[in-house]
């Protein structure tokens, strides 16, 4: 075992015993009774759009608590981990009102992670456009990825899982196992790393990923962060750079499900990137942000990830070189699989759980944040 891996495991195990900051938060249930609320985005009118993996879209008024169903979705293949995934609005939303979605589209009885957009009018989606049906179809019903993030230069990023076929992640002729960088119309930008490579798809930004379900572009630092599921152990946080190979399944910190054997050829390989953070055992991450608000000023610059298996909000403290130097496991009192976390303009957190709740996390009344 490499010294690097030993250090990562030590940090992870040590973090299990950290404080959960139980007195610093006010946790409110904004709505409950949803199915699996996979994605959320805040609109300028103080409403929250919520996707449910089972193929439903809802709009929640955060002032009144009223929630209404939105019609106009296309046919969605709901099977296994597949269904309706993320919803997100771009920085220029007010000028064009496009809302972006990712979902599982049926292609010849197989599923493909698909990027789309539409506009919202009177609780109905109009002008639906499939922008990119990714080349990612397999017979499996898992590892779709599906998270969306935007930069401020007219691009979006879309994660696509390996679709349960491990070699996909090292194959540049498929979108599976990669993070894509696209123009807002779904086309590939001319400055993408593989745009002039006839052995690669031009939309690919990075590859060697297993199932990245957390993706966050930091406008201030111009950095793209991703968090992905490992197998049995080996969840990873990566700082994504164009054209880089993040190793799956050649290298991994995880074990095979069926036996106590490491996946791949070890934890290091020439030409493959090392993660910023590894989780052994797995926490099963499903979202990621880098906090920037004033409600919890001590968190500024920290990564916050939802954990499904271990049911907490995972906080990673970074140093100036973007190395993970501390971990805390917060909000255990929620007692739910955290599917998504987003930050509001006030610096509050909105969290969704697989048991159908939307929660708002604000500082407790006794916390001094001035």
If you had to describe this structure to a student in words, what would you say it looks like?
This protein has a single domain (3-363), classed as Neuraminidase (6 Propeller), CATH 2.120.10.30. Helix content is 5%, strand content 40%. The protein is built from 2 helices and 24 strands. The strands form 6 sheets. It has a 4-stranded antiparallel beta sheet, with no helix packed on it. A 4-stranded antiparallel beta sheet has the order 2-3-4-5, with no helix packed on it.
Number of domains: 1
- The helix tally amounts to 2
Q: What is the mean pLDDT?
A: 93
Name given to the CATH architecture: 6 Propeller
Strand order of the largest sheet: 1-24-23-22
The helix-and-strand class reads mainly beta
Structure at a glance:
The chain has two helices and 24 strands. The protein has helices at 3-15, 93-96, and strands at 25-31, 37-42, 47-52, 56-61, 67-69, 84-88, 99-107, 110-121, 124-133, 148-150, 155-160, 178-183, 204-207, 212-218, 223-228, 235-240, 277-279, 285-290, 303-307, 312-318, 324-330, 338-343, 349-353, 358-363.
List the helices and strands and how they pair.
Layout: H1 3-15, E1 25-31, E2 37-42, E3 47-52, E4 56-61, E5 67-69, E6 84-88, H2 93-96, E7 99-107, E8 110-121, E9 124-133, E10 148-150, E11 155-160, E12 178-183, E13 204-207, E14 212-218, E15 223-228, E16 235-240, E17 277-279, E18 285-290, E19 303-307, E20 312-318, E21 324-330, E22 338-343, E23 349-353, E24 358-363
């Amino acid at each position: 075992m490499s010294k690097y891996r030993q250090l990562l495991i030590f940090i992870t195990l040590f973090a299990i015993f950290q404080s959960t900051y139980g007195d610093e938060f006010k946790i409110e249930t904004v709505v409950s009774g949803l199915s699996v609320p996979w994605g959320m985005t805040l609109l300028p009118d103080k409403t929250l759009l919520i996707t449910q993996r089972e193929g439903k879209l809802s709009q929640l008024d955060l002032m009144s608590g009223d929630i209404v169903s939105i019609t106009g979705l296309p046919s969605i293949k709901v099977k296994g981990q597949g269904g309706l995934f993320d919803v997100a609005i771009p920085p220029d939303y007010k000028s064009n009102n496009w809302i972006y979605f990712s979902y599982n589209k049926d292609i010849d009885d197989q599923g493909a992670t698909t990027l789309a957009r539409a506009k919202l009018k009177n609780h109905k989606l109009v002008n639906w456009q499939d922008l990119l049906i990714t080349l990612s179809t397999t017979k499996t019903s898992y590892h779709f990825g599906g998270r969306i993030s935007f930069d401020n230069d007219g691009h979006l990023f879309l994660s696509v899982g390996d679709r349960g076929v491990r070699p996909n992640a090292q194959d540049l002729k498929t979108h599976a196992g990669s993070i894509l960088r696209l123009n807002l119309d779904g086309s590939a930008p001319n400055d993408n790393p593989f745009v002039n490579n006839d052995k690669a798809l031009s939309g690919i930004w990075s590859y060697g990923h297993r199932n990245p379900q957390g993706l966050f572009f930091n406008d201030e630092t111009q950095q793209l962060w991703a968090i992905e599921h490992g197998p049995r152990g080996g969840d990873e946080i990566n700082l994504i750079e164009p054209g880089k190979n993040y190793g799956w399944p050649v290298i991994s910190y995880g074990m095979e499900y069926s036996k106590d054997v490491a996946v791949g050829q070890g934890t290091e390989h020439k030409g493959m990137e090392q993660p910023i953070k590894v989780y052994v055992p797995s926490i099963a991450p499903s979202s990621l942000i880098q906090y920037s608000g004033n409600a919890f000023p001590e968190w500024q610059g920290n990564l916050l990830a939802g954990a499904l298996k271990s049911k907490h909000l995972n906080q990673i403290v970074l140093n100036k070189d973007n190395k993970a130097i501390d971990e805390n496991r917060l909000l255990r009192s929620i007692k739910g699989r955290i599917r998504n976390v987003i930050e509001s303009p006030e610096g509050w957190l909105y969290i969704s759980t697989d048991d159908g709740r939307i929660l708002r996390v604000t500082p407790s009344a006794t916390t001094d944040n001035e």
